Amino acid sequence: MSDIAMSRRTFLGTASTVTAVAATATALQTSAAHADEAADEEIQGYPHTASQYVASYAACTNDLSEPEPIAAADVPAWADEADVVVCGLGGGLAGAAYAAQQGLSVIGIDKASSYGGTSQEACMYYFATNTRCQQEAGLDDLTDFLTQAALTGYPVGEKYAKHVSNCMQGIRDLVAWCEENGQMWEPGWVDGEQKQAFAVVPAGTQEGWNSYRIMRTVEDFYDKVFTENGGRYLFDAPLTGLVMDDGAVVGIEVEQDGEKAYVKANKGVILACGGFTNNIAMLKAYCPRGFSGVMVNTAGIYDNGDAIRIGLGAGAQLDGYNNNGIFDGGIADVDWNHHLYAPDIQIARQPWLQVDTMGDRQIYNHTDYEAFGNQIIKMPEQHIFSFFDANWYENCKDWTLPMCRNLPKADMPDQERWEGVLTSDWKPQVDKAIESGRIVSADTVEELAEKLGLPTEKLAQAFDDWNAMVASGDGSEWGYDNPDWLKPLDTPPFYGQRLGCMMYSTRCGLSINENQQVIAKNGELIPGLYAAGMTSGRPANCVCGDVGYGATSAYLAAKDIVAQA
Question: CATH number for the 325-503 domain, one of 3.90.550.10, 3.30.1390.10, 3.20.20.70, 3.90.700.10?
Answer without folding.
Answer: 3.90.700.10
